[in-house]
Amino acid sequence: MSKIKVLIVDDSATVRTVIANILSRDNDIEILGAAANPVFAQRKMEKAWPDVIILDLEMPKMDGFTFLKHIMSTRPTPVIICSAHVESGAGDAIKALSLGAVEVISKPALGIQTFLTENARGFIHSVKAAACANTTKLTANVAVAGEQESLKKQGAGVILPLSIPPEKKLVCSATKIVAIGSSTGGTIAIESVLAQLSDNIPPVLIVQHMPGKFTRAFANRLNNICRLTVKEAEDGDRLNAGCVYISPGDLHMLLKYKDNQYYVQLKDGPLVSRHKPSVDVLFRSVASCAGKNAMGIILTGMGNDGAQGMLEMRKAGALTLAQDEASSIIFGMPKAALKNGGAIRAVNLADIPGNICQFK
After folding, report:
1. First CA to last CA across the chain, in angstroms?
2. What would the mean pLDDT of 100-122 be, rounded to a whole number?
3. Strand-pair partners of 79
4. pLDDT at 163 over 70
5. Which is higher by pLDDT, 172 or 338?
6. Which of 94-98, 185-189, 206-210 has the lowest mean pLDDT?
7. Rounded distance, CA 174 to CA 184, Å?
């Protein structure tokens, strides 16, 4: 298996050196080169094309946004944005994702060497995840997830114990619920689905792997372009038809049922399946509270978060679907849900809105 060839584009010599040193420690990664700005990067890419590009946003001669547009319009390639600029402006992160970046990493303006060194494991993981992206699906709207890494993978039980088998749980409400989980490539997939839905669908709960500082901006963007009401979920939100609730990026989101009404519960805690929020946590709570009145959908993403929770939903009688390989940026999460029997069938992204409409 050939190594993942990485090009680093950043005007800071320190950043280029530190990132190169970190990635060079991994036997699966090769540093193809480093450039101080996109103009120099283009010259290097004329000689050898990288598998993954790590790109700053603010640079002399050409900014990162312009270069990102150029890459996606000429030869779509996985790009990881690593910039201090997104630290103060979540809108820039969402813009970069919408232009085709597969992930955005917010680096601090000060202490960058320490930050990168302390997050070396996650950085390597991000590069490997990006290298798995289906480049035929990368377009100027492809978005990404903030992958989170932990040394020990934990199940949803650390947040919500599975004390009662879902299939025996009494379902006492006829109100239907749609739960969606996604990761790398998920932001554009979610946008594609929601943009085609009218406001007479059941409440939709979404866990998208993304840093907490970006989820509100992501929800606001969707609210502006969709007929549905989209918001970043708040603890205690009462679920209403035609509304979409995006989990905050630094909390687990659960479905709660009380007094014949569904509510959002937000809960802090450890990473589950290496993520917070975790799709497994959301799906388990939906299996427990909504059972056969729920629909679970797992979209593109690296890893297997959501597979176990979707299996619990299916056992509770829910309709469970997975995005198919042909339309996924990364088929990891849908594949895991299909493999363990959690997802009943694979569905092309273009057909998912129709399935939701039929479920209402």
Report:
1. 46
2. 82
3. 53
4. no
5. 338
6. 94-98
7. 33
C-alpha 150/C-alpha 169 separation (Å) is 32
- What's the pLDDT tens digit per position in 274-302? 889 999 999 999 999 999 999 999 999 88
Angle at CA 345, nearest 5°, toward 343 and 348?
115
Name residues whose C-beta falls within 8 Å of residue 316's C-beta, 6 or more positions apart in sequence: 166, 167, 169, 287, 288, 290, 291, 292, 294
Active-site residues, by number, are 183, 209, 305
Peptide bond into 277 cis (omega under 30): yes
pLDDT at 87: 60
Q: Is the pLDDT of residue 172 over 80?
A: no
Tokens of 73: 């319009």
Contact of 126 with 55, CB cutoff 8 Å: no
Name which of 169, 179, 174 is nearest 320 in CA terms: 179
Q: Phi and psi at residue 288, in whole multiples of 5°?
A: -70, -40
